[in-house]
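Board notes (copied after class):
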Amino acid sequence: MRQMKTKALSKQTKNNLVTYGIVIAAYIAVEILMRAGMVSSLLKGLLVPLCIYVILAVSLNLTVGILGELSLGHAGFMCVGAFAGAIFSKCTMNAIPVAGLRFFLALLIGAAFAALAGILVGIPVLRLKGDYLAIVTLAFGEIIKNVINIIFLGRDSRGFHISLKDAFDLGLEPEGEVIIKGPQGITGTPNDSTFLIGILLILVTLFIVLNLIHSRTGRAIMSIRDNRIAAESVGINVTKYKLLAFTVSASLAGVAGVLYAHNLSTLAAQPKNFGYNMSIMILVFVVLGGIGNIRGSIIAAVVLTLLPEMLRSLNDYRMLIYAVVLIAVMIFSWSPKCREFRERYGLKRLLGSKKGPKEEV
């Protein structure tokens, strides 16, 4: 029995190392291509957003794939983390001149505020199921975006001032500074995000999610997903574990938001950045890569982000081709006939057929 557990653990470790290795190999390959001058400026500008989308896809898969709950408010948690981290960096640029330390603290601040938002939303929302949960989380994301759009935040020697009207209503001293300018957002955020930092954050995200999945807590979360009544019957605290998974997912989305905020000179809560379209796009990454498949989420996020840019030369036809590719991949991934074909003629099946028959014990 102990040998079987050791083999299972070693197999999980090997799978995790393969996932880490794919990310590291991709980073090395991109660095080699950039040093060789084979990467365009457009692709260089997409490297940090690619890391952001991968973190968002992996973190959402924890809620959708592992917990089994449909959430459409992931962009809202990203928005909370982005603005919390940007406000911290903007206010401490002179107090903490070391960019690395300031950015690390901003990541912790963004993750903490996003986790707090996850707890506040999760306590009432996780009592719902299915479509009701999706609608409420979608509403939360829209509320967060619209609330930030009407906030004016300033700072002077007397402290912070908040107004919901305009910047003149803040009553700042002459040397005061307006940090959040309503719909204009935050300007002058330090540009601390790099591709290397994005890769490191992806590895940290994978470490947290994969270890959570394969832990005792992860097994309890998956048992709730598979059969809530059976999980409750054996003494599993359903509310506790659902809230834990939801909070961790929200916190990682906040980390992606901080990375996003420090990749731009101006941060505004626009619909294209933090609206429901962003949440749905992240959900598409998860569904297309395979619900519960962490490695698939990474690949889907990278491919679906690069594909529209690779097709940009086709002008009016690029989004049509993008939609056709999405439909084709979804059919190939989820059609019963295609799944049966993959199981029969897949690589694992072909390799397994080459092995000799097992000896009976």
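Comment from the instructor: Residues 47-273 form one domain. Confidence is low (pLDDT under 50) at residues 353-361.
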